[in-house]
Structure formats: C-alpha cells, structure tokens
Specification:
Elements lengths: L2 H7 L1 E2 L6 H4 L4 H6 E2 L7 H15 L5 H14 L18 H24 L2 H6 L2 E6 L10 H7 L4 E2 L2 E5 L4 H5 L15 E6 L1 H6 L5 H13 L15 H26 L4 H12 L4 H8 L3 H10 L4
Parallel strand pairs: 1-2
Antiparallel strand pairs: 3-5, 3-6, 4-5
Length: about 300
C-alpha cells in the first residue's frame, strides 16, 4: 500500500472539534479518520484529502497543491471567519494548507516505515531505533530530551534509543502513534539500531529477539486498510455532540442576524460576488440575503 492509498482510505469525519479536543479522541479513530480542526463540511475535507493524496504521489509541488485547494475552496464559496483571515484558522492560508497536507503525508509515511520495521525479518536485524533529528527546522524544539525522559525513555551516552515496540514511542507522540511525526511540524524521526547494539545496550537479548520474531510471525501487524474505525467512548461522543451543538448554535445566531439584515459579513461577501458578476440567484442562495438586498448592493456598486 502506498502513502497516497493510506490517505485515501481514511474516512471523512466532519466535526467542530478543535485540535486540542481532537487530541482527546482515541488514536485508533484519529488514525482512520481524515479530519481538520473545526472543519465540519465533508466536501471541504474531501478536497483536502484529495490534495494530500496528490502530494503524496509526487505528482506536483506544494505550491500547485495550494493553488488547487484554494480554487476548490472558492468553488465551494468558502470564506474565513471575520478577523481570522490569513491566520492558521483560515483554510486559504499557506500555514493551514501546509500543515494539513504535510502532516497527513508524514503520518502515512511514518506508518509505512513502522509497519516495515515491525516485520519479522526487519525486527530480527534492527529491533531498536534511535530518536533523532532527521530534518532541520528554523525554530527546532529544545525540549525533546525532557519529553523523552517524561515518556519513559532511557538515554545511552546522550542517545535516545528504545526497542521498536517500547511504549515510549506512543507516550512521546502528541498523536498517540508509535511512529513519526511525533508532533506538529516536527523534524524529529527515527533511525534503525541493529541487534548487536541493542543487545550491547541491554535493551534485549537473543532469546528476546527470537521470541518477538515468533510473535510477529504468528500475529503480524494488521494491514491499515483492514483496520476499522474505533468505537467512541461515551465521553468522546458527548464531546463531539457538544461541539456540534455549539456549531448549530453559532449557525442559528448567524441566520438570525442575516434575517434581520444585520450581518455585515454576508453583505461584504455579496459585494465581492457582485463585483465578480455572479448571478443574483447564486448570491442570494449563498449569503441568504433577500433579492431586494442584493439588488440594492448592485445598484450601490453601479452594477445594476
């Protein structure tokens, strides 16, 4: 299975949850779901997923991915929240597009690397791995040694090394995964450590390697495509329900403001659409302004 196929196998899950709330959802669901902070519209998520898969296939560069995704957003009449334009909360922004695309591709790549490394033959030759920097960052995090220790990791002459199936990897990850990336935009990754070194460090012995290899032969890692979406706990379902209710409450307020003619954002969007010579019917459908309001805006802009 390729990185692109892993991404496309993810189920689209629209939700009003923000990043901190999503981090409280079990990793089993997050790994099989394609989602983005406070994006409830499945059509937007579908466009995100397609662009991430396209980038994973290496068909085009990131600048063209951004352009293509922005075109999709315009086609869907997406508009960022007032006051959030150009920030990470704006789906048009480079920062938001990049984090969506790069994180999903990096997670698919990390899963493939992990699955390959946990094969019986690979584990026998390289049962451990070192946590180390694999990509430079302009502002690298300085607290990784402390986070490693807090996650239960041991150091050997300053090197952060553990067996591949050690829980330290899951504990270290903000995503709850035993493979990179371990944090948003992180340049930290893993490098294989051979059996002789792992034995010398006291991480495992030859008998332990043989036992683990036998276990992996009898119970190999399940294929990503075969995995099912995890069931939500009562607490997780309640959190999602509350977030969705808050979203509908926001919508009710928004619609009430439009109905009373007090929604400036709707009028500003209508003005933009008028200047682009969009049909009156399309403008009224999108903004929910009355036809009379749209015609008044056209007249004021000299487009009547």
């Amino acid at each position: 299975m390729t990185e692109s196929e892993i991404i496309l196998q993810k189920a689209l899950v629209g939700s009003s949850l923000d990043s901190s709330q999503w981090n409280q959802i079990q990793a089993g669901l997050r790994n099989r779901a394609f989602f983005s902070s406070r994006v409830a519209e499945v059509n937007i998520l579908a466009a995100m997923r397609d662009k991430a898969a396209e980038y994973a296939r290496g068909e085009t560069d990131l600048s063209k991915i951004r352009m293509g995704f922005r075109d999709e957003l315009r086609r869907m009449h997406y508009a960022p929240e007032a006051g959030k334009e150009g920030t990470i909360h704006d789906l048009f922004s480079q920062a938001r597009i990049d984090v969506i695309v790069k994180t999903n591709v990096a997670q698919a790549r990390g899963y493939m690397q992990y699955a390959e490394g946990m094969g019986p033959g690979a584990f026998a030759a390289f049962p451990a791995q070192e946590f180390t920097r694999v990509a430079e960052r302009s502002k690298p995090r300085k607290d990784w040694p402390q986070r490693w220790k807090a996650a239960g990791g041991r150091t050997f002459g300053g090197r952060m090394i553990a067996l591949k199936d050690d829980p330290v990897w899951t504990n270290l990850s903000v995503f709850g995964n035993p493979y990179p990336p371990f944090d948003w935009g992180s340049g930290m990754g893993v490098m294989d450590v051979d059996a002789d070194t792992a034995i010398e460090l006291g991480l495992i012995d030859k008998a332990g390697i043989k036992s683990k290899v036998r276990e992996l032969r009898e119970n190999p890692l399940p294929d990503f495509n075969a995995a099912k979406l995890a069931k939500l706990s009562k607490e997780e379902q309640q959190m999602i329900d509350e977030a969705q209710k808050a979203k509908w409450d926001e919508y009710a307020i928004h619609k009430a403001a439009i109905d009373t003619g007090r929604n400036q954002k709707a009028r500003e969007m209508a003005e933009k659409m008028v200047l682009k010579n969009r049909p009156v019917e399309e403008i009224t459908d999108f903004t929910e302004l009355s036809e009379a309001d749209v015609l008044a805006i056209k007249a004021a802009l000299g487009k009547a």
